[in-house]
Amino acid sequence: MVLKRKNYLFIIIGCLVVLLGFILMSGGGTENPEEFNEQALFSFRRITLAPFLVIAGYVVVLFGILKKE
Q1: Which residue, of 25, 39, 53, 65, is most buried by count of CB atoms within 10 Å of its CB?
Q2: For the CA atoms of 19, 69, 2, 66, what is the dihedral angle to 10 degrees?
Q3: What do you get for the CA distance between the two ends of the chain, in Å?
Q4: Of 24, 11, 10, nearest to 53 (Cα)?
Q5: pLDDT of residue 15 exceeding 80
Q6: What is the mean pLDDT of the chain?
Q7: How many CA atoms lie within 13 A of 17 on its CB side?
């Protein structure tokens, strides 16, 4: 095998972190198109935390691919 078990573990963990980031980024919509909820749309979770998790997840996946034993 080219990649070891530890590499696959890093790749899976990184994918889960990316998925968590995209889940945290979703939402914020309203049922009424006339209503705009600025607090829900521009919250810390959607603007700062979720993109950070996505980028960190991609870094972990890249580390899992490039790591040599």
Answers
A1: 53
A2: 50
A3: 12
A4: 24
A5: yes
A6: 91
A7: 19
